[in-house]
Specification:
Elements (H helix, E strand, L loop, with lengths): L16 H24 L3 H43 L2 H6 L5 H7 L7 H11 L3 H7 L11
Helix pairs in contact: 1-2, 2-4, 4-6
Length: about 140
């Protein structure tokens, strides 16, 4: 069930407790423990454990990065469709100039303020955070990963 609390720039970041508060601390702690163990007991198996622990850290980070990248691609497609339906023609043809990061930021803008914000984003070449900060009527997105 989606979260119903009001969302804005200050509270839109999302934590995934199993990932951020369980998996990440465990793999990072495991990496540190293996380094300490290798210094106390310098042998090949201890060094190999460091390599495996580092691989686990990289794998966990890559899994998170891959899921966020897929999410950004879906957002890009959704926003391009929304822009094609919402923007007036002169601005619609310029929407292709928006970067993926700008589109990801624009997803929070209400339909009413979207045309002016797209214009402002294109004119000022705003970054993702700047786009989000410029939004007045926040459209929540509670389904992010």
């Amino acid at each position: 069930m989606p979260d119903t609390k009001v969302q804005n720039y200050a509270n839109h970041a999302k934590f995934d407790p199993p990932f951020h508060f369980f998996l990440m601390p465990i793999v990072v702690t495991n990496f540190i423990v293996n380094i300490v163990h290798a210094f106390r007991h310098p042998e090949l198996s201890a060094y190999w454990s460091i390599v495996l622990a580092a691989a686990a850290v990289v794998a966990v980070f890559k899994m998170r990065i891959y899921s966020l990248k897929v999410q950004d691609r879906v957002i890009r497609l959704e926003e391009r469709l929304r822009l094609s339906q919402t923007l007036p023609e002169p601005l619609r043809s310029r929407a292709a100039q928006l970067s993926e990061a700008q589109l990801v930021g624009l997803r929070f803008a209400s339909d009413a303020e979207l045309p002016s914000l797209v214009e402002k984003t294109l004119t000022g070449n705003l970054k993702n955070a700047e786009v989000k900060k410029a939004i007045v009527n926040w459209r929540p997105d509670h389904f992010r990963v």
